[in-house]
Structures are given as structure tokens and as C-alpha cells.
Amino acid sequence: GTAAIIWNEIIREKITNFIMNQSKEQRILDFVLQNAVRGDPCSVVDTIDKYCSEKEWAMNVGDEKGLILDKTVEEVNPSVALELGTYCGYSAVRIARLLKAGAHLLTVEFNPEFAAIAKQMIEFAGVQDKVKLLEGPSEEIIPQLKKKYEVDTLDFVFLDHWKDRYAPDTILLQECNLLRKGSVLLADNIIVPGAPEFLKYIRNNPRFQCTNYPSHLEYMKVVDAMEKAVFLG
Q1: 93 is in an annotated binding site
Q2: Which positions in this protein are listed as binding Mg(2+) (predicted)?
Q3: Catalytic (active site) residue 17
Q4: Each residue of 7-16: pLDDT tens digit?
Q5: Tell me: the pLDDT tens digits for 49-63?
Q6: Catalytic residue among 13, 49, 188, 224
Q7: pTM for this one?
Q8: Rounded distance, CA 217 to CA 140, Å?
């Protein structure tokens, strides 16, 4: 799995970027702008899946694990959701399309180039009223959520950023009193590339009730999984 990511993310991508003089993320956006239906989030999600399964691999949550994400969001029915790791905006659009009226998603992206792509993707999908994109490192933004962004507590958190930040950011969410009894965390890529510290932390913590969802790495046959953790207060 790691070898496949290295091939797709580093070697193949660098060659293509050099030849085409643009980033893979820009190519994904261009494909969506040319082929998806404006204002239709499902069309945007399907078009990204089509590009990434047929043309170039990318680190979205993808179609298979996306169904686990959908099911979790529908079960939680959050008023306030947080996503760590926006990338191209795929999962932000995927989550936003399921949010009830008046609900909103805060999505955090460290890379300014990815954030710029995601903003356009979110707007094209027509979900910009439900999504607020926050640029910067998660460890700086999480402590600002209450005062600066008027968040009381979070109903749902999707972790899909740097895997070594999963555990410290989960601890930070608790320290900042952003989790309430029943808050749900869902973490992607817990096998590939893997988040062992996070799994060790939540599975051995009596304040969390964990469920594992076996799946596959996005757009591949490589074994991966997602982990759901319900905060018990």
C-alpha cells in the first residue's frame, strides 16, 4: 500500500506535473469544472471519483470509504461538524450535501494551494453556504474554534489530515472542551498510511467507544480501514 502511494503521489505525479506544467489538484478541479453539473454536489463527488479511479490517483476518502462517511454523517445528523484535512474539497462536499438546514461544516487545510482548489470546488458544488474553510495548521485552529468561530461543541469530527496529528488533535479537542457526550470522531486511513498512535490512544481510553470499519484504500484494492470513536463524556 505504501509503495503504491509513493508511486502515485511522488514519482508519477511529479513527471505529469512537469509535462503538463500544472498540479494534479488543478487537473482534478479542471476536470470537475468541465464535466460535473454546477450546483450539484453529487455530480461533483462522482466526477472526482471518475477522474481518480480512471486517470490519476488522489488521496480523497473515495467512493468505497465515502459510503462509510455518508452513513456516519446520516446517523449523527450533526449541526456542527469539523473536518481536519480539506485537500481538494471532496469530503467537504460529500459531508455538506448531507447536512440538514442550518447545519455547517468547518474544514481545516494547512496547504494554501489545496485550500484555493477546495474553495473553488465547494463553490462549484453549491455548498459554500454550509462550509467554512479555515486555512492553517490544525493545532493552531482547534484552540480558536470556541472564541473566534463561535463553536460550542462539535457533533462530528472527520480526521483525514496528517496521520501523526490524529492523536494530538483528538487530545486537543478534549482539552478545548469541544467534544460533548455523544460527539463522534471518524478517522480515515488508519491502516494505510496508518495511524497507530491514534488507535492506541482511543482504543485504550474509557472515554471512547470504538468501532472499526474494514475497507480499501481509495481507488485501490489495498486493505485499509476507518475507525469511529464515540465520546462518552
Answers
A1: no
A2: 160, 188-189
A3: no
A4: 556 666 666 6
A5: 999 999 988 889 999
A6: 188
A7: 0.92
A8: 29
